[in-house]
From TrEMBL:
InterPro entries: Isochorismatase-like_dom, Isochorismatase-like_hydrls, Isochorismatase-like_sf. It comes from Sinorhizobium meliloti CCNWSX0020. It comes from the Bacteria. This is N-carbamoylsarcosine amidase. Keywords: Hydrolase. Gene3D superfamilies: Isochorismatase-like. It holds the Pfam family Isochorismatase. Residues 23-200 form the Isochorismatase-like domain. The keyword GTP-binding does not apply. GO terms for molecular function: hydrolase activity. SUPFAM superfamilies: Isochorismatase-like hydrolases.
Amino acid sequence: MQSAEANYKGVWGNRIGFGQRPALLVIDFLKGYTIEDSPLYAPGVVDAVARTPHLIEAARRTGIPVIHTRILYLAENCADGGIWVQKAPVMKAMVEGNELAEFCDEVAPAAGELVIVKQYASAFFGTSLAPHLHAQGIDTVVLAGCSTSGCIRASAVDAVQHGFRTIVVGDCVGDRHPDPHNANLFDIDSKYGDVVSREEAITAFGGASCP
C-alpha cells in the first residue's frame, strides 16, 4: 500500500501562503489542558504553550493583531454547549470560577487584545470573529493553540470557508496524543491551509502589512 504522502501527491497539498494582512489567533490555551490532574490534560499542549510566547511576542512587536479564544459556558448546566457537552461532558469544566477555564499564564491576553468567547469547537461558529477580521482587512489567519484534532481543525476548516488564507503553526499547536495531532496536521496541510514552523510564521510577520 502507498504511503499517505505518495497517495496525496499531485492531488492535495497545494501551498496557499501568507497574504498581506495576517492576524494571530491563539485558540483555547486554557489551564485545563496543562494541569496534570485535569481530565483534559494534554502533554502536547504543555509543549505547545511553552513554544508559543515567542510567536505571540513577534506578532505584537510587528503590529500583527493577536486574538485569543476561550470556551466558556454561561447557562445553567452548560446548556449553551448543546449536544457537544452531552457528547463530551468533560467540557463542563469550562465555566467562570473554575481554574481549568482560565488562560495559561505564559500566553494570556495582553491588555486591549480581543478575547472571543465561544461554546463550540470552531472559533468562528456563533461568534463575531469573521466579521471582525473582515472589517480589519485581515486576509490571513494564523492559528496556534489546542487541541489540534478539535478546536484547531474546526477553526482551520471554518477559516478557509470564510475566505481567509489559513496557516497553522505546527510547533505551537498540541493534543493529548501524537497520533490525532499528526493526522490532523497532515489533513489540514493537505486540504485547508498550510502548516508551517514557528520560525516561518515569525519571518512572515516581519514582511506583513499591518492593518
